[in-house]
Specification:
- The protein has a six-stranded parallel β-sheet, with helices on both faces.
- It has a domain of 174 residues: Undecaprenyl pyrophosphate synthetase (3-Layer(aba) Sandwich).
- The relative contact order is 0.19.
- It is of the alpha/beta class and 249 residues long.
- The longest helix is centred in the N-terminal third of the chain and has 24 residues.
- The chain contains seven helices and eight strands, in the order E-H-H-E-H-E-H-E-H-H-E-E-H-E-E.
- It is globular and about 55 Å long.
- The structure holds 3-methylbut-3-enyl trihydrogen diphosphate (2 copies) and magnesium ion (MG).
- One 3-methylbut-3-enyl trihydrogen diphosphate binds next to helix 1.
- Belongs to the UPP synthase family.
- GO terms for molecular function: ditrans,polycis-undecaprenyl-diphosphate synthase [(2E,6E)-farnesyl-diphosphate specific] activity; magnesium ion binding.
Length: 249
């Protein structure tokens, strides 16, 4: 990839925030915002696939979102199941592979089965990987990775001294995928809210005030343009060995 300029991030991660405020601004109930949020998901998936993004990771429900009122949680789960049922065939036809990351044990069995079926159906697709983070938390992710490593140590398969960053990374939910190049957070907040804590170490961060249901192709253009203007140093000093935002290690 050296020498070739490519203003497109390989991996985009998105914190889709602002559905509730979108609804409140229109005196609508929060579910109306989540409904329009699903439409915005469809738009960004199609757009990213068309542009040639390799991986798109969407934060759909966090470990902390379980603490919302029970009605909102069950509505979100129903909405998620409906969206999955409605969209999986189209995603498959579009050659998009669907993966899920998060603490699946927290989800109901019916939803888990549908997620597993969608992942299996689309497993061979090559155009783009769509990762949906549901019941996901960055701290959960690192904790479950630590637990897997501990299990292997206890089983005598791994020496404690052999644990290094690659080894831990291999146990994380996004193992095998490149780290996100660009993180987009809509909705005006400038925080990570326990998303991909490990994987975002050198990700370019883009925050915008647009509420998620209003996020469209022009907004995506603006985020990608911002990314194209970054010089990624990865801790080094500027010079010939430093990559532009469009080149990858
Ligand atoms: C994001 O929108 C969707 C989820 C977190 C599930 P919010 O529901 O957080 O919307 P706001 O932040 O209250 O506007
Ligand atoms: C982050 O949004 C989680 C998702 C978008 C799924 P939140 O609305 O939960 O984040 P906070 O509470 O404002 O930090
Ligand atoms: Mg929010």
């Amino acid at each position: 990839m050296t020498g070739r300029t490519r203003a497109l991030p390989r991996h985009i991660a998105v914190i889709m925030d602002g559905n509730g405020r979108w609804a409140a601004a229109r005196a609508l109930p929060r579910p109306a915002g989540h409904h329009m949020g699903v439409r915005a998901v469809k738009r960004i998936v199609e757009n990213c696939a068309r542009r040639g993004v390799e991986v798109l990771t969407l934060f759909a429900f966090s470990s902390e979102n379980w603490q919302r009122p029970r009605d909102e949680v069950s509505m979100l789960m129903r909405r998620f199941l409906e969206a999955l049922d409605q969209e999986v065939e189209q995603l498959h036809r579009n050659d998009i592979r669907l993966c899920f990351v998060g603490d699946a044990q927290q989800l109901n069995a019916g939803l888990r089965e549908r997620m597993a079926a969608a992942a299996a159906l689309t497993a061979g697709n090559r155009r783009m990987i769509l990762v949906v983070a549901i019941a996901y938390g960055g701290r959960w992710d690192i904790t479950q990775a630590a637990r897997s490593l501990a299990r292997r140590c206890v089983a005598g398969e791994l020496a404690i001294e052999a644990i290094d960053e690659d080894c831990l990374e291999a146990q994380l939910a996004l193992h095998g995928l490149p780290d996100p190049d660009l993180l987009i957070r809509t909705g005006g907040e400038r925080r990570i809210s326990n998303f991909l804590l490990w994987n975002l170490a050198y990700t370019e961060l883009y925050f915008c005030d647009t509420l998620w249901p209003d996020f469209d192709e022009q907004e995506l253009d603006a985020a990608i343009e911002y990314f194209g203007g970054r010089q990624r140093r990865f801790g080094r000093v500027p010079g010939p060995s430093v990559r532009r935002a469009d080149e990858h290690p």
